[in-house]
User: Fold these one by one.
Assistant:
Number 1:
Amino acid sequence: MTTLLTHPALVLAAEQTEPVASAGRLLTAALVGILALVLLITQFSLHPFLALTIGSLLVAAVAGMSMGDAVDAFSEGFGDTAASVGTLIALGAMFGKLLADSGGADRLVDTIIARSGPRSLPWAMALVGALIGLPMFFEIGLVILMPVIFLVARRAQVSLIAVGIPALAGLSAMHGLVPPHPGPLAAIGVLNADLGITLVLGVLVSIPVIVLAGPLFAKLAARWVDVSPPALFESKVPAGTSTGGSAAPADAGTSTDTPAAEDEPTRRPGFGITLFTVLLPVVLMMGKAVGDIAADEGNPVRSALDFVGTPLVALLLSVLVAMFTLGGGAGMSRRAVTGSLERSLPAIAGIVLIVAAGGGFKQTLVDTGIGAMIAGWATGAGISALLLGWLVAVAIRLATGSATVATVTAAGILVPLLPGLDPTQTSLLVLAIGAGSVFFSFVNDAGFWLVKEYFGLTVGQNVKTWSVMETVLSVAGLVLVLLLDLVL
């Protein structure tokens, strides 16, 4: 099945969007807007929300759109994206915070590591990273994983890189390819992709990608860079009485998010019930995709699966279940569970604003006709939609350092390509953009510095390990997406 941009519907879609200026002026507007976005984020350290807002208005101004229409376009895109994605991000943050605070994340990690031998340890760490990364945002998952990586490396007497890279590969692949992370969710919303199909294909792509960029690449990376784990995160609490909270670096200070002592968990939830809870939203959303394929429209079973598999309902049900299985399983009081859910929201306010502003930037590109112009050029050149999506995301990732900004901006640029794509191809386009969004993490990416400082690496060592791992993950993801496009 081909995704070359030669479908007649693409030309029709381009004709339906009336450009506000000549092609030369629109091209100038796009370049000025993207350049301003890059400079504001990288050189002036402006928050991406503000940069996207300013960039949108600048694009409209250079293109010749009236400021009233520019504000309306940005507001429309911002509101639509916030409504469709913001709630899901909030529910995902609640779920991830409760998983961490209850000790469920620690239970998963400890059980998997305890059942692994020396040779299978990197593979187990990749599985740990994927499981932890499934319901959590990258930064949260990274902080939770670090104590585990250090302790495992120290107790197994292996290189920090040998077990750290597989865990980070699992975490990063989930972040870039699998909803309910904000980047994939935003792309799904902007491109109107089917979440169930995208989720199934994302899991299929992420498994071989994690294997290649994780355990296999770690063998090479451990030879290039051999470092011992620092003396951090040594637990003084017996595993059976752990509160489940992740340790913080020695210089992190006192956290205001720590619940009162009397409200702390008294035990860890069981492995089985924790695994069930973590996988519940994925199972519900996959069930919807299977029902859409296997059952006729109007079938009661399909209707039920469609309802519970809707992202909002699936995540809402998962949070409610987690309150009992994780919170109750850890012996947390109702006040402690409520406090954990409340503390999850401030941390993701910035992410919601970035994603919503990306939607506003997208709508500006659409309303000025820039998106249709790019689609017309791609149609004439015969470029694969999937390859184009990956290249655009890579360019924005390298320029801004933000995977989320790269995803939402690239998705907005490629909206005019949708009429020529079927639902499966649209989901593959989401994955191609997601793969491009994690390409070569470098000094303008906050994740680069988090990994460098935690691992105690030099910039060069971090490039040889973390940055190359991200690149392997990105390129492998693109190759697998293109292969899936040939057979689906």
Number 2:
Amino acid sequence: MSRFPGTVLSRAADTVTVAGFRVGWSLIRRMPERSAYALFDRIADLTVARGGGARMRANYATVRPELDDTALDALVREGMRAYMRYYCEAFRLPVLTPDELAARVRVEGDGAIREVLGAGGSVVCFLGHLGNWDLAGAWGAVHLGPVTTVAERLEPEEVFGEFLAFRTGLGMTIHPLTGGPPPFPLLREAAKGVGLIPLLADRDLSRDGVEVDFCGEPARMAAGPAALALAGRRPLHPVSIRHERRDAGWGIVITFHEAVEVPGSGTTRQKVSAMTQSCADVLGETVRTHTADWHMLQPVFTKDLDLDRLARAGVT
């Protein structure tokens, strides 16, 4: 039996987690960039060596079934490095100037986006957990227009508060997914003005998502981006983000893909499903091509969601 009540141990773990994030934000940004990246590469390699990344491996195996075990192991190592790179860059983001942000971002297909923003409109963006979406959001807030999005509430609460303050400090408006006012009406209001509304949608957090074909397998994705675009009569653009090696380190490439078509007939639910599938098709091509940039450490595919629910219920 533990010497301490579970709540005390949990609170102690939360305190360590919060302290770790605060050290990261204060220390990593002061390190030379190459040294910071090298440190996080080592953390990634150690994580994989100790058995971390099992869910990432399962997801990668689903989208890249042609890979043998050796190639899959190498891809997971690369993917974990990219995932840790996201945190390294996040810790350093608050001290970057607008020019430094611009130097770290290359953009493709932004002509249509700038046209809508220039006309006083808004754009809804369907994102996956690809590359560094916080760097993309910070760049967008500075170089495109206001950015409004939704963030999953993290545990412990103090960590969520740190990330909320961090993203707000980058110039983004953040609405919590849970624990506050329903986010959809707030997003609809934002869609009436000028700006970008990027939403991470390759994992359904609402249990009311849309089942799509993703890389040849059934998966559930969030209905929110398509529903918002449809309700506000705004264009819906799939957006992919990937890392790109630069002379001094790393940058990202943001690709704004063409807006998906709105079906001419069908119920609202059917239109939302069709538009979400169109986004999933674009995302799937990116994930196949740049798999290591897909930082998905949670179940996405229906087969894995079913197994996860059974495990949580204690059914074997």
Number 3:
Amino acid sequence: MPEAARYRKVDLHSHSNRSDGRFSPLELVDLAVEQGVTLFSLTDHDTLDGLAEARERAFEHGLSFINGVELSTQWNGIPLHMVALNFSADDSALLSIVEANQRIRLDRAQRIAELLVKQGLPNLFDEAVTLAGESQLGRPHFAALLVEKGFVKDTNKAFDRYLGNKKLGQLRDVWPELEEVLARLAGQGMELVLAHPKRYPLTVTKLKRLLSDFKKWGGTGIEIASGNERPDSVRLLERLSIEFDLKASVGSDYHGPFGPWMQLGKFTQIQESKVNLVWQSWD
């Protein structure tokens, strides 16, 4: 079998409206099938809420479905994302991490509302909660309310004038330390994958230091192809996955139809045949 055929129809990183994606879990699974994906994972940020319905819909389609979640962590003060894959949805350690991260997200939203009040705006927290509904509450919901109420003409202006980091501060959430999260989840049979490693503000030297820690603490893989990642970055990550003996994962990081470069099952293709693909050992 050609190397490309091993992963061409795999997508292990996507988001529904249970976090910050556009489509519902059911719509996302339908789209995956439409795009020819045959092995799929829903990996919403810090929530497992959409997994049950996505799995049921995948079963109806005959689509192989893997439980997933994208966890927020930090390493040396740098916010990072880690994708956990192929776990039991009732894993107590994972559930406790997810619940703690949800509390952090809610606290952040309350701080955003308070900082907007200090800028002379009304307290929009309750309305933002209502607007968010089943999705995760965040700055886009506040931006939408600012447009709706006429404070700005569009969401870009909302971020420029009120919601950008220069206005709100960095809002650097106190996410759990990467070492702590890995200590609680490693060795339980799930795959623990560092998401989109080239998107962090790290030199190659610091990235290698991160991967060394990640491996030492129990991490099992890295995303070597994610969305519209540049081919040269994918080549580097292929080499690093081999150097650090970390399994290779791939995914579109799809959030919705926000450009021609974003689609389920679409990412820069792997070339290195020596990488150990994360799903090769799955039944």
Number 4:
Amino acid sequence: MTVPPSLLALLQVLRPCFTAPTFRTFSALVTGLIGANRRRTVVGMLLGAGMTHLWPHDRAHYFFARARWSADQLGLALARLIAQRLLPQDAALHVAVDDTLFKRRGKKVYGAAWQHDGSATGAKKTGFGNNWVVLGLLVPLPFLDRPVCLPVLARLWRPGSEASKVELARQLVGLLLSAFLARELCLVGDAAYHGKALRDLPERCSWTCRMQRNGVFYAPAPPPTGRRGHPRWKGERLGTPGEIAAATAFTRATVQRYGRTETVRLAVVAGLWWGAFHRRACRLILIRDEGSDKVYDLVLVTTDLSADPAAVVSRYAWRWQIELLFLQVKQILGVGQARNRVQRAVERTVPFGLAVYTLTVIWYALHGRHEADLARRRTREPWLTGKATVSFEDMHQALRHEVLEHRITHVIAAHNPTQQIRVFDLERCALPDTLPLRHSR
């Protein structure tokens, strides 16, 4: 087994999360998931690593089902690596949280059930599989026009379990808070992520999400009157977002969202969302697109009382990157294709795949050549006239070529180089975008 030095340097940062034999297996499976050109099952990772004739296939299954390592510890190590290599020192961490369904088959798969699947076709929007609550860091990269979501923590949610998805998200946020004691956290979630579990968040952790149309907003608590009895905890009822928008004046503002600069109209109201955040002060931000005839087009609630409203709108627009993350890890990296069934294997295979996604982006940000990759892609596919930045597919292909090239250029004579060159050529023929080798053979 050979690992490119640039990738090995990143893997060595994660070395304390594993024992010595487990780390060797981890490194092989990482390169196997990156280099595989078939289904990314557990044995498919072993096949992609080129270790099928050296290791028994049970070694790969043992890594997920019985080996001693923690997915949470691995995720926190990745989060620290991102903060050290890709973010300014002491900068606030922007975090997105959401859940997605990884489809599975078989009644004996742990935690699998029929549940909501937002990406499913048809009117029912259901699917059979495992549902994961994922927390990812939103990281701006200099060669991209929008941030990228790097998953660091994930937790399996089972229908009928005591903990809800919001409570699982709160647990993951707590782990991140304990790992970064001196940093502020700015979290964003969709309309499903609010509730009692988020009321105890510390002041350095703000939460931004959508508000439902039937949600009720209240004025801040009035000052004590000096009379007998407990002071009021909330002010007068301001109403639903529609009622507030009809009685509030909007001002024009410029926002950056979804890679574009747009002019919108904003209305900001301070108060309390009693049903979600209880006594914690919030701001209601109503957004109306320029030229829209609606009362409002989007309504946000944030516990960040100091940020500019336009910046909060842009921050919430970053949340869409976690939706792109789910698409990419399933269709490009093949996360979720593993066919294991026991509890520990199911609980650790998807976080492992998400970690490989994060490692791929970190490696490309440090060692990738985005200008050359973009020019090569435009040359090979001239119809991509609007392609201005590299995608995760380009990052994945660049790292995959690095892994395969290093594997063939660093073999020893006893391993039959002639046969390995032939296998390597077959692997390169299976790639959708074949890149030239950097070194001669």
